[in-house]
Amino acid sequence: MSLTGFRDAAARPLGVATAVTPASLLALKRSGAPITALTAYDYPTARLADEAGIDMLLVGDSLAMAVLGHEDTLAVTMDEMLHHARAVRRATQRALLVVDLPYGSYQISVEDTLRNSLRMVKEAGANAVKLEGGAAMASRVRALTAAEIPVVAHIGLTPQSVNRMGGYRVQGRSEIEAMTLLDDALALEDAGAIAIVLEGIPRELAALITARLHIPTIGIGAGPKCDGQILVWHDVFGLSFRNAPKFVRQFEDVAALMRKGLEEYRTAVSERTFPRDEESYHLPTNVHLPETEEPELSVWSE
Ligand SMILES: Nc1nc(=O)c2c([nH]1)NC[C@@H]1CN(c3ccc(C(=O)N[C@@H](CCC(=O)O)C(=O)O)cc3)CN21
Ligand SMILES: CC(C)C(=O)C(=O)O
Ligand SMILES: [Mg+2]
Hints:
alpha/beta, 13% strand, disordered N terminus, binds 5,10-methenyl-6,7,8-trihydrofolic acid
């Protein structure tokens, strides 16, 4: 694994844009240029996102819901996250590759957090890991940073807290809750986080946190003043099969395209217009098989 994110530096095409690093995300914040981020879960979609110039690809634990059909994110395992992260790694040349630590992989101890995060780096080629939680997670962030594992923090509507929150509810709407979230963000920055995801909080609070922090904020349902924005791939393309949160914008209706293609394929097979002769293999002209006997359909239809 090279520093630039290319597994084999010699295989890097000449003239390709420099790979995104934690330092370049910081530079984007300082220059005022928005950071673009998106989730990715497999090879073809990660290739499209990377080639489109998305700065950060996140193998989110939203995998559980968006891809695996679970009701929430709690069930997804380290092995499932690694399996998808490896596919995304193979496709990603430029973007910073961040992988979510799944629920249970970092709650028990700092040691567990380090062991599981090292797996993300060594077995999947993650450039950074992400974990949910506030000031209570600062010791984890500090230990990972000391172990040379860049960390993205995540506060506000943290989906792994669904049982405590009693559903997916906007956070930080009272002054006391808002100030606690600001303190959390400052503690995570102090512990060494390279960036922080702000999810499901009032836009005014996200603007305040973004102004107070030196590291970039990446918003999802946190308004326009964050340093960057992230969305779930399936929400962007209308592939979610559930009521979308208010913060989602569907940029294209890929499900409609897929339905159209499915209807065309089903019809073509049903009507025997697929495959055509050009879509079939032929015997060499010197090879002769016995004639096939056409079934006498009329006998059976009488
Ligand atoms: N496809 C998908 N998109 C996501 O953004 C996403 C996932 N899956 N899975 C993991 C979490 C869960 N997320 C969610 C899910 C639901 C709401 C939601 O229903 N929000 C309410 C807010 C209610 C309130 O006002 O408190 C909404 O109406 O927007 C928000 C975030 C975000 N993450
Ligand atoms: C939406 C982002 C921030 C996330 O954590 C996920 O996709 O799991
Ligand atoms: Mg997540």
